[in-house]
Amino acid sequence: MPREIPKAYEPQEIEERWAKSWFDEKLFRAENSGDGPMFSIALPPPNITGSIHIGHMLEHTQIDMLVRWHRMRGHRTLWLPGMDHAGIATQFVVERQLAKEKIRRQDLGREEFERRVWQWKAESGGVIKEQMIRLGASCDWTREKFTLEPALYRSVLEAFLRLYREGLIYRGRYMVNWCPRCQTAISDLEVVHIERPGKLWHIRYPIVGAPAGGSQYLVVATTRPETLLGDTAVAVHPDDERYQALVGKSVLLPLMDREIPVIADTYVDRAFGTGVVKITPAHDPNDFEVGKRHNLPEIDVMTGDAHMSEAAGKYAGLDRFVARARIVEDLQELGLLEKIEDITHAVGVCDRCKSEVEPRISTQWFCKMAPLAEPAKKVVREDLIEVVPDNQRTILLNWLDNIRDWCISRQLWWGHRIPVWHCAGCNEMVPALDSRVEVIDGRARAAGVPTTCPKCGGAKLTQDTDVLDTWFSSGLWPFSTLGWPDDTEDLRTFYPTSLLISGYDILFFWDARMIMMGLHLTGGANLSQRIPFRRLYLHSLVRTAEGAKMSKTKGTGVDPLELTQKFGTDALRYMLASMAAPGTDIILSEDRILGARAFANKIWNAARFLFVNLEKVESQGIEIEEIAAPEIRAKAPYRVPGEGALAHRWIFSRLAGVAAQVNDALENFRFHEASQLIYHFFWGDFCDWYIEWVKPQITSADRAVALPAWRNIFAALEAALRLLHPVMPFLTEELWHRLPQASGARSIALAPFPEPRAEWTDSAVEKSMAYLQGGIVSARNQRAELKIAQKEKVPAEVLILDEHERSLVEDNRDTIMRLASLSELREASRPMAGFGGAAVAVSADLDIRVIYEAKVDRTAETARIRKEVERLEKDVESKKKRLADESFRSKAPAKIVQDLETTLVERQAEYQKLLDRLKQLE
Fold it and tell me: Best exposed site among 540, 670, 700, 906 by fewest CB in 10 Å?
């Protein structure tokens, strides 16, 4: 790669080139990582119908940061990717495509429809994979999986058959959530309850044989008057004296002229409304249970697509909402509508298509969850699985404590077909003989097909038409992708996986089910060997600048690919990571991304500056291989004679400290902290201080000075690039390859992450450097307040308190004067002389005063210092109060308390010095 760095940083060209190179070279195969401790993580499988959205971008950035970090630390690292077949979503896409040809799936038949879906997958599915590759996800793409591929099809068969034979999977006729748009049952978790305005209709049910002069009606309130056509009773509480005499009698069902009984059941809340409720067993889960207790008939008045059925009489064929309006009109005409109330109530809608869900009796397949939940609770409570943030651990345990059976069947054609056959002769259910699969035209199916009924010997067996909920196969993902149920090398090596990163919105859909399935199905000797992952990190949401949840339908969504095209992938990654504090949602704004892009430019320009200046000193015979070769970098820091030696020791001490802090932050999912530490090191320490401090050395005509200075600066640059790589992989890869590397070195991604080397750490050097930096910053601030022109040099005084301070100032006098734009630096007497109207500013470190007598307004300067005194007074008192708070001291980490105590001492020193200066001016 050429050494010359272009003037402009153009991320698009760089990113596309490296993304292709990484993929083509199969750089991120687990076999290319180290042989240290194992780190494995499975990608939450995106739908084959999907494309990258901002939530994916956040999740993938966090995973990729950790994967790259572990890989660089020499760990045996696997990030296993794959795609989900996404039953409902994919079937919808293909059905819409067929509709354009005026074809229904029923016209094609199941086999041909499935073939069409596979064809669509081959041609159009998996867009998100290409996007992930382009965005640099460091997955092992050689191990990519798909939930309907033969190996995973077999895993699903094995899991189903085991659970079925253990009696944990059963079939029954129960009330389910039915989506009329998707035309399938959906689980409780797939129903979203939305507050919507609605109406409460109070309907009169005539009492059969009511005596003259007495009450002629029972009044029932409902939000769904269309379901009254299927009422088979009205109920009252058995202890409600108002209605005890009516129990056992009948009312006339409005519009249907059918007598239905008045029953007593403790389900009724006598304090709510009139204390009378309609019982519609076929259309309400609570009514379904009441109906079973009282042997009530179940009358289904709706079809699967939410039109009224033949049982609805004259309303048959009408859409449910059209029927509702017609029924209300008819009730009004008959005088059976007592009143209508405007209300706001929670309406259940399908999470996928947003249609209103109908409770409906249906024959479905279910999985018993309570037995599976018990060991899951145990591993979470005993921290065998660490859940971060901790509040999500409590939420997970609460859900497991109240778990309900899971409806696992879906009325679809695309998916894992239920491996059970029904005997036409005796209705016996016969499961597949085993979990073998056969592949026909690239499609997997059960090979162990039963040919005769074990109960009656009949040969007419028909496979169940339903498929499994997509989340069933997803629940096996951590181990099915590693070869389970076979005892594969990958399963032995990488299971349990180290970590799962997931959105908290699928904690119950996916994460909890993986825990239960992994514990029950894998064969470890103890729970710690069967858990699917050892740690679970639940990331937050990305929100708009106004704090709203991003939504494509509301027009508030953003396309991350557009943002990466505009600002660069690294900039978007850095912005997301820098704001990803555990448990805190991310507010996305263009200004924040611009800041991240500015950071990328700063890195690029710093590297370019060094290479440009290196060309200027090549006349001295200094070649890049002589100063930046790997074996040269490994021996840094080098001793540099003369002024500036302090800065060289300081930058390597800072590098060691920041590496340790970044390691700790990433280990504990503090992505924001890791990103900000790297930012402040690269922009602040390396660019703004170190490069500026040693400029005279790297441009020195004295080879004995320039050579070790260049060696140090390139060693620090290369280490800083490795430090930054997990956050900004493309930029760092590009610049790293501009440096000489060892023969066979393929990528910075395979280079070691900077170690916090003990021999580099020097707290005394860091303290000395901070002392000088404080003085320089103070002088710069004074110049700004006095509005001194940038090129104008002015004198200054420093107050020296001891010989150590004197030595520091003398050894770095020229640097202080250069960086603070001073014409003279002299030592002041103690206390400092007032020098008429000299400007005064205070640092807790080097005490410096810029002298600019001609233009200083003594009155204005006095007012400024008084204002600063007031600010410091409040700051000191605030910190004292906080440190006096025992609750704070007992709960805050020790380092936080220690840092606050240190800051208080510094503020008190500044405060006292300001008071002394104020006396000089007054």
Answer: 906
